Amino acid sequence: MTTYSYRQATDDDVTVVTDVYNEAVIEGGSTTDLTPVGYGERKAWLDRHRDPYAVFIITADDGQGVRRDIGFASISVFYDRPGYDGVCSLAYYIAKDARGAGAGSFTMRTLLDECAARGMRRACTTIFADNAASTGLCARFGFTRYGLMPDAAYDSQDTLHGMSYWYFDV
Predict the structure, then answer these.
(1) How far apart (Å, rounded) are the C-alpha atoms in residues 130 and 148?
(2) 146 domain residue, yes or no
(3) Terminal alpha carbon distance of the chain
(4) Which of 30, 66, 153, 162 has the largest count of CB atoms under 10 Å?
(5) Quick check: is 151 in a domain?
(6) For residue 153, is it within any domain?
(7) Which residues span the domain enclosing 36?
(8) What CATH number does residue 44 fall under?
């Protein structure tokens, strides 16, 4: 049975963050970046996550002593004006070969627990409306969908997606 753990990302984790993110970019369906990002871009992104914001590495243990980093999750600034302090934006990416085995649920629980520990009052996320796995995860965890923008953004496969907007009262 696979078990999951997490840790706060450091500079040593930029490679896994970059690799997992670029896999999602190339696959399409979960990000509006149209081309893979470089190590330097991901390092700069990681550096912008100063307390109370953070990036976490998700690790899977197969129960036989094999551990591997399979994804990352972030608590980011929602909007950079002081009146929005306590409101954050959530994101997560799981390696394709690790999906469907509970990593997403573990990651969402981790994010919400970390939001509470960091004094957030509301967590928001933006998801392609046709991303059934992520929209379903938000619904299961009690998020409220507060908006839908049809035909809003393209992915790397040149597919136009509607965007769904979700929030959770921490």
Answers:
(1) 11
(2) no
(3) 30
(4) 30
(5) no
(6) no
(7) 3-121
(8) 3.40.630.30
What's the burial of 153, exposed, middle or buried (CB within 10 Å: 0-12/13-18/19+)? middle
SS3 content of the chain, % helix, strand, coil (to 5): 35, 35, 30
Q: Is residue 138 in a domain?
A: no
- SS3 of residue 79 by DSSP: coil
HEC-encoded secondary structure of 44-69: HHHHCCCCCCEEEEEEEECCCCCEEE
User: What is the residue-level pLDDT of the chain in tens, covering all 170 positions?
Assistant: 899 999 999 999 999 999 999 999 999 999 999 999 999 999 999 999 999 999 999 999 988 888 999 999 999 999 999 999 999 999 999 999 999 999 999 999 999 999 999 999 999 999 999 999 999 999 999 999 999 999 999 999 999 999 999 999 99
Q: In what order do the strands lie in the sheet with 67-77?
A: 3-8, 54-61, 67-77, 87-94, 122-128, 160-169, 144-154
